[in-house]
Amino acid sequence: PVFPSLNHDMTLAEFKFIWYMEYSHRMWGRVVGLAYILPAAYFWRRGWLSRPLKGCVLALCGLVCFQGLLGWYMVKSGLEEKPDSYDIPRVSQYRLAAHLGSALVLYSASLWTGLSLLLPRHKLPESHQLLRLRQYAHGTTALIFLTALSGAFVAGLDAGLVYNSFPKMGERWIPDDLLAFSPVLRNIFENPTTVQFDHRILGIASVTAVTALYLFSRKIPLPRRTRMAVTSLLAVACVQ
Question: Contact at 8 Å (CB) between 192 and 223?
């Protein structure tokens, strides 16, 4: 459906380029799945996995399969004919956000499981400050996750094309069409202006939260590995 409405002048060579991009993405996803599932099956058969680890392995295996299924479901939404719609055919921003969110959960869970096996856990005294730091780190993680998901909505709606000035959006701090859709809740997920505005606010909030986490961590005696992780987090947030 994209061809007659948007890309009617596309040549065969140009089509092959985007086709190979999509094909490579699918093949790479399958390779990743096999690179996980085959060794996991081998370790299981050899009896190298403890009972709790078997649960983690099964959960991660399910996430790998679910990720592929969700990718197919997402792409399918961009290939549906919508004769009554005047909008440019595109994949659903909801499915795109779900696909990205699932990938982030899979990646984070894999990394967490791997590091738990490779690095022994530090036995630290459970002080009030350390508990607060851990809670704040969890809250920051949730905020970053939400920011990334809002980026998927920006991509799905091409909302990045609406305003390209910063920190103002055009000539205003708050755009006129921020709440143009009805009901109001629709604006958060379907209004390109609101979606870009939310992503900006969440991005600024994430950098602020990471900076505050770093400054708070400096007041607490922490192991070298933990301090390195917090410093690296701040550096990556600034680069991002």
Answer: no
